[in-house]
Specification:
159 residues; alpha/beta; four-stranded parallel beta sheet
């Protein structure tokens, strides 16, 4: 039996992007990874449009809560991924040697427009997150050394 790798998605408010990433990773690779999410300044809620967007993608995040990264600082992690620039700047040092990467996405919570335009933007961000997660899951980890794997995870943020 192999141990699941632990992955933490970080953003500022932990209300949209990191929540969607956590849900998608657990749906797509829950047999290989335990995904969590947190924020450097938690909003205190999960955005209703994030919940709705994930529901349309077959992912239930309706019971998720917005959490502070402080509660995870002492935990062992294999991978830390920031999904917003502010979290990247505020990201503390975690114990051990987790791979750290930045996969920046625009914040759908701050998108301005009609309700329909906001929904489209949430779907676009969620689709972008899913695309990067699928690229991540397709990495041939067993054929790479630790440095190559870490660099490949970081490079996904450039795509």
């Amino acid at each position: 039996m192999t141990t699941k790798k632990r992955i933490l998605f970080l953003c500022t408010g932990n209300s949209c992007r990191s929540q969607m990433a956590e849900g998608l990773m657990n749906k797509l690779a829950g047999d290989r990874f335990e995904a969590y999410s947190a924020g450097s300044n938690p909003a205190g809620y999960v955005h209703p449009m994030a919940i709705e967007t994930m529901r349309h993608m077959g992912v239930d995040i309706s019971r998720n809560v917005s959490k502070s990264l402080d509660q995870y600082l002492g935990d062992p992690w294999n991978i830390i991924i920031t999904v917003c620039d502010n979290a990247r700047e505020a990201c503390p040092t975690f114990p051990g040697r987790p791979i750290s990467a930045h996969w920046g996405f625009e914040d759908p919570a701050h998108f301005e427009g009609t309700e329909e335009a906001k929904q489209r933007f949430f779907r676009q961000v969620a689709t972008d997150i899913e695309r990067r997660i699928r690229l991540f899951l397709a990495l041939p980890e067993s054929a790479m050394n630790e440095f190559e794997y870490a660099q490949a995870v970081r490079n996904i943020g450039l795509q």
